User: Fold these one by one.
Assistant:
Number 1:
Amino acid sequence: MSENLFDLSGEVAVVIGATGALGGACAMAMAKAGAKVAVAGRNTGRGEARVCEIADAGGQAQFFGCDAMDPASLKSCHESVGQALGAPTVLLNAAGGNHPDAIVTPEMPFEKIPLPGWARVFDLNLIGGLLLPCQEFGPAMCQRGRGSIINIASVTSHLPLSKVIAYSASKAAVLSATRFLAREWATKGVRVNSITPGFFPAEQNKKLLFNEDGTPNARAKAIFGHTSMGRFGEPSELAGAAVYLASEKAASFVTGSDIVVDGGFLSQTI
C-alpha cells in the first residue's frame, strides 16, 4: 500500500479565522485529513457552527475564542488549545480583510485616504493576520523543533489592484514577512509558507463585486476576463493547498513558498 502523504493524523491545527469562508474550508479539510482542529475566532456562534459542521463530516474540532489583534487573547487561546487538544503543530492565519475607509473612490482619491483607514487594513492583514499570531505560536514550535505556519497572501501581493491600495500593500507585506520567517525558522524545524488565493467572493468583498440584485458588476466581469478559468473560486478549492502545506510528509522540504490558487489570474495577459 502506498503511503498517504496528506494524512494529518497526530497534527493539532490552529486555524485563526476559521469562522470565515476560506478559513472554514481549510479547517474542514484539515479535520477530514485527520488533524485535531482548533477553530479560533471572535464570533462564538459562527465558531460553534463550524465545529458542528466538522463533527458532522467525521472530523474532530473545538472552538476557542481568540482575538488575533490581542496578544493576551492569543496567549490564552494557545494555552487552552494545548490543554484540550495538545501542542499546536500547524498554524493557519486566515484572519484579515479590507475597510471602506481605505478604498479609492472618485470621492476619496489616494491622497485623501485617512491614516486610520490605512492603519485599520494593515492591522487586519499584517498585524493580526500574521505578526501577533506568529509571535505567539512560532517560538513554541521552534522550541519543539517542528511546525508548519501557513499565511494567507493574495493576488494583490503580486499585482496591485485598482481601488484597494492599502489592501494590496498589506498583502504584499504578508508575502514578504512569510519569506522572512521561513528563513529565520528553517533550521529550527518550522516551515513557513503562504497561499495566494485568487478571487473568492466573501462578505468583505461583496460590495466590490456584486450589484444590489446579486448580479456580477463591471468589476467582477473584468475579473472574469482576467481569469483564465473565467469564474470565481469556491472556498473548497483553496483547502487542498492548506492540507499540502500542513503535511509534514508531503511538504517536508517546502518553506518560503507561495502556492497560487487563482484560476489563472496571475498568468493571464493578452
Number 2:
Amino acid sequence: MKNLYIDFDGVIYNSIEVSYKIAEEENINKDYESYYQFFKNLDWCAVLEKSDEINDAFNCIRKIIDSSKFNVFVLTHVVSLKEAELKVKLIREHLDDITIIPVPKNLSKVKMVRVKDAILVDDYPENLREWKEAGGLGVRFDLDMDGKGFPVINKLDELIKMF
C-alpha cells in the first residue's frame, strides 16, 4: 500500500481562498514576512467558519480509506498551534481514523515524512515540485484541471482510479 498525503487548505477546504480574501481586504503586503505575520495572527476559527468543504472531500477521503489502496494522511502547513488545533478538530468531526500531520510553515513537507514513492495531493505546485525531487509522486488538486505539469484531479476520490 502506498502512503497518500492530502493537503488541507485548497484541497479539503477552501480556507486558503478565504484567508487570501481577508488579506486583500486588509491590504496586507504580499511579501513572505507580511503574509507569515498575517497568517500567524489570523482568526482561524472565523476563517474555517467562512470556508467550505471542496467537492465532497470528506466523503471522498472515506471512499479512499475504504478502498484499502492507500495509507491515508492529512499533511497540512500551519503557522500557529491554534490553526493546527482547529484544523484537527474540524477533520475529526468528519474522520476519526486518519492521521493528521501539522507542518510548521517554515518547514517543507518533505522534511516531515518519508517521501520516497509516497503520493502528495496538493494545490500548490511548489510543494509538488519539492515532493517529486525527493522521490515522491505529486498530484495537483485544481478545480480548473490545470495540472501545471503534474497529474491533476478536481475530486479526491479520482485517486482510486488513478492508482
Number 3:
Amino acid sequence: MKVGQNTVVTIDYQLLDADGQMLEQEQGIAYLHGGHGGVLPVLEAALEGAAVGQEVRARIDPDDGFGHFDENAIRREPRSAFPPDVEVGMQFAGSPNDSDDMAVYTVTEVGDDHVLVDGNHPLAGQTVEFVVMVRGLRNATEEEVAHGHAHGPGGHHH
C-alpha cells in the first residue's frame, strides 16, 4: 500500500530550520491524506506515493507554508483587555482590524498599561524542512472521509 487519496497516514516527523537545526519533532501523528487539510499541501504532495518505512523530505518556503512576517499583525492592546495573570507566551483568539476573521495572537510583551500581541505564525517568514518517516498506512473509513480527518490513535478523537 502507498500513500494516496483517502488513506490514513501515520508519520513521525522532524521540522528543521534553514540551517538544519531541529525546531520540533513528533511521533505517531495520523492524518487523512488527499486534500483534507491535515498537512501543508506541499508536504502532502511530497508524501503522495510513499510506502511504510520510506523517508520523505519537503522544503517549505513562506509562500507555501507559514506565510511572510507581517508587521501589521503586531498589535498594542490595553492591559485592561486581558486577564490579570496575562504573561508572555500566552495565546488568545481575536479578530484582525476591520475583519470578522479570527486569528491567534501570542503575547510578546506585558507592560503596566499595555500588552503587545503578535498574530504572525511563529514560523512566519522562515523556510523550513520537514523530514518525515511513514510509519503506517490504512484505508480511511467512510466516516473519516465524511469528517475530513483521521480517527483513533494519533488522529482526532470525538
